[in-house]
Design a protein that fits this description.
The chain is built from nine helices and nine strands. The protein has one domain. The relative contact order is 0.16. The two termini are 25 Å apart. The strands form two sheets. Strands 1, 2, 3, 4, 5, 6 and 9 form a seven-stranded antiparallel β-sheet that branches. A two-stranded antiparallel sheet has the order 7-8. It is α+β, with helices and mostly antiparallel strands. Keywords: Signal. This is DUF2145 domain-containing protein.
Length: 270
């Protein structure tokens, strides 16, 4: 290991909790050595996001999205979203998000540092910050320090293309959307996924729809443990229309509500 890389690794260790290579959010599960270039790019992305967050002095919790893979053929850009928060002003930012255990149909919640969020196999280092209005941010922050509330809408049965209005599976973006719905709801206290999905329907959430060929659909189910279609309504899946929660649909839903949400795109230097 070069002295430059050793120094960067030391800095990253201060910024991030350790994330095993066996967890992913839509990227390949091939283990690859961490290169100096990847580490530099991840830390640079984290610094750009941190600078943008620091411009919002009162921001304590936001949604943060990354471009883990190229989804342009589906008209989408960002692939994965999580929460970034800090308990007190001046403290380091932490990420909490849902990750799939590679090679399985299971997921769990992970806490890590901001730099680690970009240390997966990124397609690009652009990032999207979604800043909630203060009342929603306050309720989200309460959940960040309460593991039981964060797990209230977590289902470990994972599918990359989980149907948004089914309880059978969940993907990373679904967990963020349902957690946000629980914080958005003022009418009732949302304490499970069924209530969160009912609220989202009433609030007008629309999932993204992708056209997936029958060969891809069947191949995904047969050969990938983290892809399932049996939670989708027959009229959709047998016409190769797959509806799922994407970052783009989350952003459209939150910003269209005209309730004070702000979206900030942080471009990479490349």
């Amino acid at each position: 290991m070069s002295s430059g890389l050793r120094k960067l690794v030391g800095c990253a260790a201060l910024l991030a909790a350790t994330l095993p290579f066996s967890a992913s959010a839509g990227q390949s599960c091939n283990e690859a050595a961490l290169t100096e270039t990847t580490l530099r790019d991840a830390m640079a992305a984290a610094q750009r996001v941190r600078t943008a967050l620091d411009q919002h002095d009162d921001a304590r919790v936001v949604l943060l999205a990354r471009v883990g893979q190229d989804l342009s053929k589906y008209g989408l850009k960002y692939s994965h979203v999580g929460f970034v928060y800090r308990a007190e002003p001046g403290q380091p930012w932490r990420v909490v998000h849902l990750l799939n255990t590679c090679g399985t149909g299971k997921s769990d919640l992970w806490y890590e540092g901001l730099a680690n969020f970009f240390m997966d196999d990124m397609f690009s280092y652009d990032a999207l910050i979604m800043v909630p209005p203060k009342p929603v941010a306050d309720r989200l922050l309460e959940r960040m320090s309460n593991p039981a509330e964060l797990r209230a809408v977590h289902n470990p049965a994972y599918s990359l293309v989980a149907y948004p209005f089914s309880l059978r599976y969940e993907n990373s973006n679904t967990w963020v959307l349902e957690t946000t719905a629980a914080a958005e709801s003022k009418e009732i206290k949302i304490s499970n996924r069924e209530q969160a999905q009912a609220w989202l329907r009433l609030a007008g959430y629309q999932p993204s729809e992708m056209n997936v060929g029958a060969f891809k659909r069947l191949g995904g189910r047969m050969f990938k443990a983290n892809v399932a279609f049996d939670d989708h309504p027959n009229e959709l899946r047998f016409s190769d229309r797959i509806q799922t929660v994407t970052v783009d649909s989350v952003q459209k839903f939150l910003t269209a509500r005209n309730k004070g949400w702000e979206a900030i795109e942080v471009k990479s230097a490349k």
